[in-house]
């Protein structure tokens, strides 16, 4: 295979992958759980859930959680991102200790002062009522608090830890964030600005405020009585997504660079497509233009026609709106000959900022092992969704190219085409 693609750009190879999901810490455990159709959704134990409409999530239990108070979101994002990156870099065998030979492209959620922070500050304020000026005064000089909740701070600390080159880029594009981070790395390599990139998507927002906000948008499942059955993408009785967390890291390299150092190539990132519609804060434009456009753009960027896609790793959140729109997009792009499509979120929930990166890793593993992960909890087919959703059990298949979809709130859509190693 040539080291240049159909447009003369460097072919982008994946030489390392790392995962942290509710199914396990590491690629092997997460992938085995996914193929087994095991759910990582359970009751929330990290904080009180009395009086909340939704009391389930895809929690990741970190070693630090057992040792004391659970980590708050910024620290949790950083910890899971580091764990995934360590696995990916070790697998790629790239760079000297602490010196990664390329930039860091980090996809992560917005970070903010959380309620444990606020309550700690409030306890320092004498008298009542407690007002914001008093809280601000109590926070003055708390550099650790400021740096912990500074959006770019997580990326800076990860860049220092792994010795990446140049200024780290931290980005958030809603549920497309993880895929956007990969796209940034791909574009840097294609432009010749880097021979390698460390791309990470991480999410740690299973916390009260995020849960309440999504609940107020009527976006979450309230099937609390049986957590493992709550996430039901493409199924007739679906009624919302399940919040989750985790991280994935990919080491990207030009194929030429990977071959020169004798690296094992796990797969290729063949194409990226991005479209936005700015229609509504949660809903897609009913014409599906941005979703359809992102899929078509990714396939064209890979130099393929739709029939060249063997499987689609769905965005598949399990909300009535998303699954309807993804079906519309699939039919528009592939016509009557839609390839199989399944949703990892049926087992791990919606990992939000990490989803695009986690699902890209799962797409590469699908190609490697020739196994399509199932869409579990598919009990009552929806007649409005005439797709092969690989219901309930994994399936053997020959897979050379996968389209991985990420459709975010606010109309931010990114699709990736992953291909087999040459």
Q: Which features would summarize this protein structure in a list?
A:
single chain, 422 residues, alpha/beta, Peroxisomal Thiolase, Chain A, domain 1, eleven-stranded mixed sheet, two-stranded antiparallel sheet, 35% helix, 18% strand
Describe the protein.
- Helix 8 packs across helix 14.
- The strands form three sheets. Strands 1, 2, 5, 6, 7, 8, 9, 10, 11, 14 and 15 form an eleven-stranded mixed beta sheet that branches. Strands 3-4 form a two-stranded antiparallel sheet.
- Helix content is 35%, strand content 18%.
- A hairpin with a 2-residue loop joins strand 1 and strand 2.
- The chain is built from 14 helices and 15 strands.
- It has a single domain, classed as Thiolase/Chalcone synthase (Peroxisomal Thiolase, Chain A, domain 1), CATH 3.40.47.
- By secondary structure, it is of the alpha/beta class.
Rg from C-alpha positions? 21 Å
Taken as a percent bin, the fraction of beta residues is 15-25%
Q: Which oligomeric state applies? A: single chain
Mean pLDDT: 93
The total strand number stands at 15
Unreliable sequence segments: none
Give the name of the CATH architecture: 3-Layer(aba) Sandwich
Judged by helices, strands and strand pairing, the structural class is alpha/beta
The separation of the N and C termini measures 6 Å
The arrangement of helices and strands along the chain is EEHEEHHEHHHHEHEHEHEHEHEHHEEEE
Number of domains: 1
Query: What is the makeup of the main sheet?
Result: 11 strands, mixed
CATH class: Alpha Beta
Looking at the structure, the CATH topology is Peroxisomal Thiolase, Chain A, domain 1
How many helices? Answer: 14
Give the overall form. Answer: globular
Helix content: 25-40%
CATH superfamily: Thiolase/Chalcone synthase
């Amino acid at each position: 295979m040539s080291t240049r693609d159909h447009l003369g750009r460097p072919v982008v190879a994946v030489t390392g992958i790392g995962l942290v999901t509710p199914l396990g810490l590491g690629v092997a455990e997460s992938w085995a759980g996914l193929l087994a159709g095991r759910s990582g959704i359970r009751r929330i134990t990290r904080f009180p859930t009395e009086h909340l409409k939704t009391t389930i999530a895809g929690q990741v239990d970190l070693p630090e959680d057992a040792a004391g108070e659970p980590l708050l979101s910024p620290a949790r994002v950083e910890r899971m991102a580091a764990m995934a990156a360590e696995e990916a870099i070790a697998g790629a065998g790239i760079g000297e200790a602490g010196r990664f030979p390329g930039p860091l492209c980090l996809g992560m959620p917005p970070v903010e002062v959380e309620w444990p922070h606020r309550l700690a500050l409030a306890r320092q304020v004498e008298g009542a009522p407690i007002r914001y000026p008093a809280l601000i005064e109590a926070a003055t000089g708390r550099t650790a608090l400021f740096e912990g909740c500074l959006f770019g701070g997580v990326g800076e600390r990860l860049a220092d830890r792994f010795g990446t080159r140049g200024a780290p880029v931290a980005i958030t594009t809603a549920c497309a964030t993880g895929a956007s981070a990969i796209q940034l790395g791909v574009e840097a390599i294609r432009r010749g600005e880097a021979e390698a990139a460390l791309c990470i998507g991480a999410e740690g927002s299973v916390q009260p405020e995020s849960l309440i906000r999504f609940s107020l948008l009527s976006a979450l499942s309230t099937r609390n009585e049986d957590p493992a059955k709550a996430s039901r993408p493409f199924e007739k009785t679906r009624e919302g997504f399940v919040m989750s967390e985790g991280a994935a890291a990919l080491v990207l390299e030009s194929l030429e660079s990977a071959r020169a150092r004798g690296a094992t190539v796990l797969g290729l990132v063949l194409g990226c497509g991005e479209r936005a519609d700015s229609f509504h804060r949660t809903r897609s434009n009913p014409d599906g233009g941005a979703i359809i456009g992102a899929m078509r753009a990714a396939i064209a960027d890979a130099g393929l026609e739709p029939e060249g896609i063997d499987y689609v790793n769905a965005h598949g959140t399990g909300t009535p709106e998303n699954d309807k729109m993804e079906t519309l997009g699939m039919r528009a792009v592939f016509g009557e000959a839609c390839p199989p499509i399944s949703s990892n979120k049926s087992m791990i929930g919606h990992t939000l900022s990490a989803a695009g990166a986690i699902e890209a890793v799962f797409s590469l593993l699908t190609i490697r092992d020739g196994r399509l992960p199932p869409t579990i909890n598919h009990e009552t087919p929806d007649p409005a969704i005439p797709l092969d959703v690989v219901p309930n059990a994994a399936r053997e298949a020959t897979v050379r190219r996968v389209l991985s979809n990420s459709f975010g709130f606010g109309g931010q859509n990114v699709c990736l085409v992953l291909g087999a190693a040459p």
